[in-house]
Write a structure and sequence with these properties.
Elements lengths: L21 E4 L11 H13 L4 E2 L2 E2 H21 L10 H6 L2 E6 L6 H16 L3 E6 L4 E2 L3 E6 L6 E6 L7 E2 L8 H15 L8 H15 L2 H15 L4 E5 H4 L3 H12 L1 H19 L13 E2 L8 E10 L6 E6 L6 E4 L5 E4 L7 H13 L2 E5 L1 H11 L3 E4 L1 H18 L7 E5 L5 H4 L1 H5 L2 H17 L9 H18 L8 H16 L3 H24 L11 H7 L14
Parallel strand pairs: 4-5, 4-17, 5-10, 17-18
Antiparallel strand pairs: 1-18, 2-3, 6-9, 7-8, 11-12, 12-13, 12-16, 13-14, 14-15
Helix pairs in contact: 2-9, 5-6, 6-7, 9-11, 10-13, 12-13, 16-19, 17-18
Length: 567
């Protein structure tokens, strides 16, 4: 349980509304409050130094030093396999300098996510450290197409453009390029659809590099990530990258994972307890939000309970990611199972040596079994073992409040704090369609709904003094007013309500034409609103934007022009 005097670290962030706006917390320049990346690094180092947790036969600070060495070394080697990567000669000094870390799935994400990579570089330069981005290839590849906005301000819609053929859902690390022809032609097809909004997206010059990387690595996610990272290098960003699937194979990371698995029940309880507190604190209803509780299963009472733990498991033969359940009923042994077809016996327990944890987890990978941490564990080990500051987007920062509580429950210490970076960039729809800037369908639709509501409950406010209906209308209005002014005693309350409703129904006969005219406007306004949301979304991939626009957004106004040849 967390210490009684600990105070959870809470921040709330919202994405900027204006196109081109950025949110960086802490800011690149020291603020009036003193918030800056240097103070965050110093504070986090003090917090981590306070950890007295032992991981196997090591103290946490000993494991941290070893993990940082392994991660930086392997990240430099991985990055150098496809672009220039600087590796200092003095390794001890390199490891001791701050590491600014972030991560995301290897997909075509929006510019607000890409801003994190630029911030990693800027933060690291400020503190003379190293920027490291994790390619979260252990997450699932859910779709292989992107929506391109097409049409007019009144009829805009999304047109799905595929960058690979469909395939069963699997982790990015397993996902090959299924249809090379579809992959190769994506840039041309997407640019053609995008031309009315953005005639010169960076996609034209960047996609050939993605094709080149795809031919080298034969993996969809790595092709996208390596091509994007190569572009970042040509724009001047000095960052390293490392896939999560490679990081979890490092011996020091396996020690940390083995330590967590050795206390599977405690981890299970800390995870669910943190979720319960999060739901209570934020008044969240439902056991599946923001994520489901970990389950307990007792299929065979003789075996004892199986506690779900936050990993995924799959095999090369069956790449479906499945949940993992752990059973430690037998002393010195940990059983892992998906409760379907996979079952593994590992010599992992609090009493076994960490070297045996490493051997056991290594053999799983050698036998084509993948045991991969879920998002919360990925950021936990990154923040505890590697990063001096981990940079989140808004979504990751919200989820990591749960990670913070899990760390407190397992260690009794406050975790290092994270930075938050995001931004908003929209396609130039207002420039292409000037009428879009002057239309406000959301406000008009809200006003229309309010008018229809008033017409239903206060029809007398909309009736004129037409002589042909004045007598009948006046009598109905007088009757309604009389009942409104009648005090609702217990004996009259129900009748009063019925009479007011009846008067409104009879008055509605005289407002039918007005109601039909108002309703006729709802459909077109709703269509305009849907079209405006399509055109003004902040979720379109970064590669849909012009190079100059992206440089300004990424704080790279003075970066050199991209040297890619035109398609």
């Amino acid at each position: 349980m967390p210490p009684p005097n600990s105070r959870p670290f809470r921040r709330q962030h919202k994405a900027p509304e204006a196109s081109g706006a950025r949110l960086l917390d802490p800011p690149l320049e020291p603020s009036a409050s003193g918030a800056c990346i240097e103070s965050l690094v110093d504070n986090n180092r003090l917090l981590r130094a306070a950890f007295d947790t032992r991981v196997g036969d090591l103290k946490l600070w000993e494991l941290v030093a070893a993990t940082r060495r392994e991660v930086l070394t392997v990240a430099a080697e991985y990055t150098a396999s496809y672009r220039d990567a600087h590796r200092p000669q003095d390794v001890a000094d390199w490891i001791s300098r701050p590491i600014i870390m972030g991560g995301h799935q290897p997909e075509l994400f929006h510019p607000g996510v890409w801003l994190k990579n630029s911030a990693l570089d800027a933060y690291a330069r400020t503190v003379s450290g190293t920027a490291l981005n994790l390619v979260v290839d252990t997450d699932r590849c859910a779709r292989t197409s992107v929506g391109v906005p097409v049409g007019t301000p009144h009829e805009a819609r999304l047109e799905q453009v595929a960058f690979d053929a469909p395939a069963p859902e699997m982790a990015w690390e397993e996902r090959a390029i299924v249809d090379p022809d579809t992959f190769a032609s994506f840039g041309e097809r997407a640019c053609r659809s995008l031309a009315p909004l953005e005639p010169d997206p960076i996609l034209k010059r960047w996609w050939p590099l993605a094709i080149e990387r795809g031919k080298e690595c034969h993996r969809l996610g790595l092709a996208l990530a390596q091509a994007r990272h190569s572009l970042e290098g040509r724009l001047g960003l000095e960052t390293l990258e490392l896939p999560v699937s490679e990081m979890v194979r490092l011996p020091t990371v396996m020690v940390f994972m083995g330590w967590l698995l050795s206390q599977a029940r405690s981890l299970h309880e800390a995870y669910n307890g943190a979720l319960a507190d999060h739901r209570l604190r934020h008044k969240v209803r439902g056991r599946a939000r923001p994520m489901p509780d970990l389950l307990v299963r007792t299929d065979d009472p003789a075996e004892g309970p199986w506690f779900e733990v936050p990993w995924w498991i799959w095999s090369r033969e069956d790449t479906r990611r499945r949940r993992v359940f752990a059973n430690s009923s037998t002393a010195g042994t940990l059983l892992l199972s998906d409760m379907e077809t996979l079952r593994v016996e590992l010599p992992i327990s609090p009493d076994t040596q960490p070297s045996r944890w490493i051997d056991a987890l290594s053999r799983m990978d050698e036998h084509q079994l993948r045991l991969r941490p879920r998002a919360i564990l990925t950021t936990m080990l990154s923040r505890l073992l590697v990063a001096d500051v981990f940079v989140h987007g808004i979504g990751g920062a919200a989820y990591d409040q749960i990670t913070d509580d899990i760390i407190r429950r397992l260690t009794g210490c406050d975790p290092p704090r994270h930075a938050v970076v995001t931004g908003t960039l929209r396609l130039p729809a207002d420039e292409r369609f000037p009428s879009l800037a002057d239309s406000h369908p959301a406000a008009q639709l809200a006003e229309l709904h309010q008018t229809l509501r008033s017409l239903e409950f206060h029809p007398e406010h909309f009736l004129g003094n037409d002589e042909a209906q004045a007598g009948a209308v006046r009598e109905l209005i007088v009757q309604k007013a009389r009942w409104i002014n009648t005090f609702p005693t217990p004996s009259l309350a129900k009748r009063r309500c019925r009479e007011i409703r009846a008067a409104n129904d009879r008055l509605a006969f005289h407002t039918q034409q007005m109601r039909h005219q108002l309703l006729a406007r709802v459909g077109p306004l709703a269509s305009q609103l849907r079209a405006a949301r399509v055109l003004q979304s902040r979720e379109y991939p970064w590669c849909f934007f012009a190079e100059k626009t992206l440089k300004n957004f990424l704080l790279l106004e003075n970066a050199p022009e991209s040297p890619y040849p035109m398609e």
